[in-house]
């Protein structure tokens, strides 16, 4: 049994690159949208419910429908896959950003105001860093979901490793599906581990709490 | 100087937090706002740095209406210490303390150098500087909170229940530390507490507020204890005003008796039924001997040093002593004399009488600053 990927699909590494660019691109775009949305929802609590409802409605649109709809605007491109996945990520990221910001202790926020922080400065240099653990927790879930979801793009010809699954059926080659599954799972594990590392490095104050002294 | 001029805080729903507050906080003194919850003490405090804006009247800092100032600029010139310290969990101790200097435009290096100086001044070692707040005890966090408030050397310090979240032993340390710092720095401090004992201990002046935000009395701690303005203030001060007032009287000129002090050899020969204080060869009190029985020496307890300890300590020592007498010692611990609880009470009455006839009392003293 040959494990070779048919040439017309591209090499393994090309597929891997495509897959990562689309999955991580969607996560990054989702984060870039979720941060200002979350900050706005904390600043003006009234907008939180409508924003959350909108995210849920968008999340309920089937991905295939979303792709097909977007082809009219962005063609058969990575962007067509990235945009819907970024929008889906919002449904998980926005609540995490909001919860993270709301978990900032009131005494911390009050003392920042009392020392003369402007509101934007406080949000960026106090509230947001303290929300990092919650934000990254949301980002991990969204990213693993994206890595899995990119495969659906195969139905419009932009699925990266997803193409292995369609080819597996067309060519009656189970080995291609297995390669696709293993590659996707390993990728998800590695990316998740990297995000855990990013969190540890970006929140040094969370690591050094064990040796409390009096 | 901080001036409240007929200040009112009325919320849109009709709640009145502060009602017609007028008082002055003189420069370089420590004023305590004290009262039960709902008396508007924290609201009043926060009107000084514009975290709350008055709905009527004026709050003046250094003669200028705070509403005419940019709140951010105003706040950078007023230190603020909050319950639970409110330290930034994501910044090290030194960077927490460097916050306001940084906001005022100092470079990171300058701000950290300033922060290290201030940390030393509040009694925190350099080894704590690189830790994160979660690695500190509650008392240490509160000290860092004070250091952070002092870092830019503001003339005014606002403290909102600064010591109420720490245990009583640490609280006493922090209170003593604040008095020590204030004796050196002479800031204009407004401190909010619900603890009347803390108010009496710390305040040069105490403003007692009643629910609804009305000022009940604004006076020195001693005036409060001797002449509370009304039943509310008297009730808030509690039932042991007289005993606490004794904290303000010195033990310097108490009439001490030396005749019950004997050496060990004399104690063997002594007859009669009076109490004897047996002293060592070097004059230190060793214990009490009950003259009517031939028993072991009973413990002396905690002796007092005349002039250093207030009358309250003397009375306390007399009450706890097996003989009913407090023992006075000099700085080296040698017995100077004894005084009974009755004699202490007589001395207090004499001091009161002198005060009422207007004669300055030799027993009066200010708190040790």
From TrEMBL, chain A:
Cellular location(s): Cell membrane; Membrane
Designated name of the protein: Osmoprotectant transport system permease protein
Main location: membrane
Entry similarity comment: Belongs to the binding-protein-dependent transport system permease family.
Record InterPro entries: ABC_transp_perm/SBD, MetI-like, MetI-like_sf
Residue stretches spanning the membrane: 20-39, 51-76, 82-101, 147-169, 176-198
Domain ABC transmembrane type-1: 16-195
SUPFAM superfamilies: MetI-like
TrEMBL record, chain B:
EC number annotated for this UniProt entry: 7.6.2.9
The protein, known as: ABC-type quaternary amine transporter
Keywords in alphabetical order: ATP-binding, Nucleotide-binding, Transport
GO MF term set: ABC-type quaternary ammonium compound transporting activity; ATP binding; ATP hydrolysis activity
Organism of origin: Rhodococcus rhodochrous
InterPro entries, alphabetized: AAA+_ATPase (IPR003593), ABC_transporter-like_ATP-bd (IPR003439), ABC_transporter-like_CS (IPR017871), P-loop_NTPase (IPR027417)
Alphabetized Gene3D superfamilies for the sequence: P-loop containing nucleotide triphosphate hydrolases
Listed SMART domains: AAA
Enzyme class: translocase
Keyword flag Transmembrane helix: no
Domain of life of the native organism: Bacteria
Domain ABC transporter: 2-237
Entry keyword tRNA processing: no
PANTHER family on file: OSMOPROTECTANT IMPORT ATP-BINDING PROTEIN OSMV
Recorded family membership: Belongs to the ABC transporter superfamily.
